[in-house]
Amino acid sequence: MKIYTRTGDKGMTSLIGGRVRKDAVRVEAYGTLDELNSFVGQAKVLMDPERHKDMLEDLTEIQHELFDAGGDLAYVQAPKGQEITYKVNKDMVSRLEQWIDRYDAECPPIKRFVLPGGSPVSAALHVCRTVSRRAERRVVKLSEQEAINEDVQKYLNRLSDFFFAIARAANVRDGVGDVEYKRGGEVFR
Fold first, then answer.
1. Number of domains comprising the chain
2. Is residue 98 part of a domain?
3. What pLDDT score does 24 carry?
4. Integer Cα distance of 123 and 109 in angstroms
5. Could you tell me the residue range of the domain that residue 166 belongs to?
6. Each residue of 102-149: pLDDT tens digit?
């Protein structure tokens, strides 16, 4: 099988149930998930296999789930005679909340806004956080125009919070403090 097909040379791509323009909102949404998945992979290669073992495991699971979410968003319509079976579900959202709480428990109380940075791992995870937010915005826009798996939107909303919590925990594990925004007062009490 060849990597190139030439079927997209005129700006169209195939999705489940039909072909659409490559700049369609749906393609932009799942394409941003693909971009996020790449940044997660980049963050993982910066991690120490021992110090960040649980983080590596969680991020690997998230990479699979991002691929699942992209698949859920790739449905233009159900294949003829079939119903759509989505992979992303509310249990995945609940599990993210548990992970957020676990990583947040490792961190000192937050008093100020946190700037991206600290350790290289934390900085990479903050990139994941911001790309996750952009992916969420793309999915929200898509949901206003077409039917989607609503659990994907909820998952992405939690996922950016997860990346914030794990980025702070990475700083703790790496012995580096969070970079606080100093031009404002304490906003969290």
1. 1
2. yes
3. 78
4. 19
5. 12-75+86-180
6. 999 999 998 888 989 999 999 999 999 999 999 999 999 999 998 899
